[in-house]
Fold:
Amino acid sequence: IGRTVARVREAVVSTQSTGDSHLEDLMPIIYTPTVGLACQKYGTLFRRPRGLYITIHDKGHIYDILKNWPIKKVKAVCFTDGERILGLGDQGCQGMGIPVGKLALYTGCASINPKYCLPVTLDVGTNNEDLLADPMYIGLRQKRVKGAEYDDLIEEFITACKARYGSSVLMHFEDFGNQHAFRLLSKYKDTTCCFNDDIQGTASVALAGILGSLRITNNKISDHTFVFLGAGEANLGIAELICLKMEKEGMAKEEAHKKIFMMDSRGLIVKTRTDLSEHKIHFAKDMASTKSLEEVVKTIKPTALIGASATPNTFTKPIIEEMTRNNERPIIFALSNPTSKSECTADEAYTWSNNKAVFASGSPFPRYDKNGAVFEPGQGNNAYIFPAVALGVMCCGSIRIPDDLFLTAAEALSELVSEKDLAVGRVYPRLSDIKEISVHVSVAVIKRCYELNLATVLPMPDDLETFVRSQLYSSDYESFIPTTYEYPK
Structure:
């Protein structure tokens, strides 16, 4: 903790004295992995509310509660029910750290005015027995509400937000449980300006990393076969967006699905299983079931291995060695957060693959310098995507956010990966350039919104980049020092 505080102080002092951005240094503190620990300790750290808390007992009065928020001109609402915080599971109303952190990145990464942003936690209880027994827990001490009562709360909340802040207010779903995330996104995406970052944001940033990897492997995405470990919101979202990109390259949707193999907690997703959700059925294969990832890799011989299972140490040495035997440059993405949940470390991926792996992770890993090889592993951080998409949508007043916008964002992000980045194995641009990255991605998103007739700011500006830059928020103080100049003697 002492070292962390020292780093923050050093960065703040340096920023004040030089005006340089230290967002890349502070990202692990503002966001993952530190934000996960902050949520776990939220009850003991609580000093003041940093967002709006709405409980299941407030049904019928949500609009009145929104009126208590001091800022009326809200343009983006980030909200969670705390059921699936990162890879940490149910954190109840202590999940407030996530909406607060996400909206901080709206400002830090995309220069969105913080007064336009509202973090909200919907407290419907928690099934975390440790929290229910914790005297410092600040939420409702009851089991989670489900069914119609839960759906009615979500419906009233979204309706109240649109009534209070306008029909184009951005509704950002964050860290909802699997049983609600897909269902709610499907229910509201055609009538509300909304997105789910765990599904769509993660998919977009992962696809951007894959597109960057293709410049190392020198082929098309449709040439690849993918094995996914984990079949939750993140991996299902990634798989669907990969298929959308393959379709864009001319491959039929059914053929694209054949390129995707998925494993969940019960093993390989195959057609003989009777426990599959509708989102998993598309990827079910006509083959024998197995729970062994190593067996799947040996049988399928994939070119890419993607993990979002929140289960550490699952990309083992034999698995990575097998990937290396089958591929000149195996793509290995260990995307689980926080760092303690990562499927493997960067050091393991590079070492076990004899420095051949094209690696990316969900949380940051240090520079690798061994055996004459130097790599700077890229972090597939959603912060590359969701602030930029939010900026673009807010600037043009888009009425909806279809998956196509996240495909556009991924393509725009991948364009910014330089040859210098690729030379050290980094498939993402540097986070230190995040504000310029966000402008570039948001311009691409806005252009696509106009092409899809989703934008309400009319007519379309002639210069989209100038249009975006004119709306950026700056935290720089104006100088009140009078102008000085030389006067003749």
Q: What stands out?
A: Residues 30 and 454 are 33 Å apart (CA to CA).
